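[audit] Reproducing an earlier prediction to check determinism. Same input, same settings, fresh worker. If the tokens differ from the archived copy the diff job will pick it up downstream; this log only records the rerun itself.
[audit] input (306 residues):
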Amino acid sequence: MLIRLIVLLTLTVGLTTVPVGAASAQSPECERFDRNGRCTISIESPSTPGTQPVSGGDGRSGGGERQCAEYGVPVPCSSETSGTYSDDLQCYLRLRDPQPPPDSPLWEGNYPEGAVYQCSSALSYPGTIGGGPVWLPGPPDGGLTPEAAAQVVVRRMDLRAADIGIVPENQPGRIGAVGAPVYMWTTPGPTTFGPQSLTGSAGGVTVTATAKVDRVVWSMGDGTSVTCRTPGTVYEDRFGFRPSPDCGHRYTRTSAGRPGSAYPVSATSFWVVDWTGPAGSSGRITVDLLSSTSIVVGELQALVTR
């Protein structure tokens, strides 16, 4: 039977202390050091009757329930707050939600491959920082919960903010008028309004996610907001001064005196993603994405001659 021992090597001039008692008649060479300077060594020892290995190669005792240990100290294999324990990294891993922005250094230049996790140590050692963010190319060895797997699948759906369409347009020479109808819309599609469904696997867990925009809330820049449950209607010249049938606004004042003499307009898409996973697991994930533009609003002048 192969017994793995954790020992502390204290190096002094001409002296090496290995506090392993009588485990070995001679001091074996260190195979590897952990992050705290402790040495992991392997010593061959004869098997004794009735003795079973503590765990198999997959971390399961005798092929049964998985067992976890941090540098030889038994720890729970999952934590409600910290996630699933990784034997490889010797810490708990939880998928960071939300994931860092694409230009974050936490991706280590790998975006959009893999995912960023929060690594949390189960035990506290002097001189350690207790974990931190870590990028992994694939799911951690401890697996993922269905909810964490759903988060990974949702990121693959490439959900986006509204592809803003608005009249008057944000173009040089385009000016709206006080009292005239403003049309707002987003180009409908799987990534801009939904619905979109995707079945995928992460960490050995397969989930099916269906995403759609519940509503788009338009902030018009004049202190008002408009909630639209549809993508909106694209304006056509034949509509004239008729208001939008489903997503529109009217300004009561010009944009003069505002920064850039324009109203800042933003559209927040409130995505709702329902997912189902193994053993009847299910849940809902919400994603809020914002896009913005600006429009100029003037005032019509009437000239009366006699």
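[audit] rerun output stored. Observation attached for the diff report: The mean pLDDT is 76.
[audit] end
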